Amino acid sequence: MASGHIDLANTHSKDADYELVAIAMSHAAARYNAFMVSQSLTPEQIATDRDKHIDHLAGQFREFLIQHYDGYVQEKTGV
């Protein structure tokens, strides 16, 4: 699934700046993640555990970003 989203982003990058495409993808991911949490919890749990869920999702994103960022560093620098 991730490759499909990346393919779509690459298509958009033909007509828009990479940064704009990245912002749009981040916005879409945040929106979908909030929706996903809202579907799996009660309204009380959503409100009470807000920071816990946001911290968990942000932590996942951070791990993905570190992995891929370091991959590009290694590719570009050989380090």
Concise account of the structure shown:
This is DUF3144 domain-containing protein. The protein has 79 residues and is mainly alpha-helical.
Supply the key terms.
4 helices, 79 residues, DUF3144, DUF3144 domain-containing protein, 86% helix, 2 domains
Would you give an account of this structure?
The protein has 79 residues and is an all-alpha fold. The chain folds into 2 domains: 1-40; 42-79. Helices cover 86% and strands 0% of the residues. The chain has 4 helices and no strands. The chain is extended and about 45 Å long. InterPro entries: DUF3144. This is DUF3144 domain-containing protein.
Topology of helices and strands:
Elements: H1 2-12, H2 18-40, H3 43-48, H4 50-77
Report the span from N to C terminus.
29 Å
Q: What structural class do the secondary elements suggest? A: mainly alpha
Shape: extended
Order of helices and strands: HHHH
**Average of per-residue pLDDT values:** 96
The biggest sheet amounts to: none
Q: What is the total tally of β strands?
A: 0
Number of helical runs?
4
* Estimated helix fraction: over 70%
| Total discrete domains | 2
Residue runs with pLDDT of under 50 for 5 or more positions: none
Protein name: DUF3144 domain-containing protein
Organism: Asticcacaulis endophyticus
Pfam families: DUF3144 (PF11342)
